[in-house]
Amino acid sequence: MSLKIDKRKKIRMRYEVCDKTGCLAPLVLKDPVLRALQTGLKAQVAFFDTRGREIAIPVSLLGFTAALKSLQK
């Protein structure tokens, strides 16, 4: 699995646990990644299907900083 923020380098994540409901691939939000999410416009989360084809899902980052601040209250 990977996360790409704007035109930055892909951040690879390893699957930690998979079961019949899905998989978990945690990502620790250290300062460089967190700053990229706060200043970025769009992200792309990618994973592979059962045939090995990459599926990329676009994610808007508009409102990310405000949402993060509301969680920190």
Structural commentary:
The protein has helices at 31-39, 64-71; strands spanning 2-5, 11-12, 17-19, 22-24, 42-48, 54-60. It is of the alpha+beta class. It has a single domain (2-71), classed as Invasion associated locus B (IalB) protein (Immunoglobulin-like, Sandwich). The N and C termini lie far apart (30 Å). The model has no long low-confidence stretch (mean pLDDT 93).
CATH architecture: Sandwich
Structural class: alpha+beta
Low-confidence stretches: none
Number of strands: 6
Please name the CATH topology. Answer: Immunoglobulin-like
CATH homology-level superfamily: Invasion associated locus B (IalB) protein
Report mean pLDDT, rounded to a whole number: 93
Our Rg estimate from Cα atoms comes to 14 Å
The fraction of residues in strands falls at 35-45%
H/E series: EEEEHEEH
Q: What's the CATH C level?
A: Mainly Beta
Q: What is the helix fraction of residues, given as a range?
A: 10-25%
Compute the number of helices. 2
Question: What is the subunit organization of this protein?
Answer: single chain
- From the spread of the alpha carbons, the general shape counts as globular
Q: How many distinct folded domains?
A: 1
- Describe the sheet with the most strands: 4 strands, antiparallel
Strand order of the largest sheet: 2-1-5-6
Distance between the termini: 30 Å
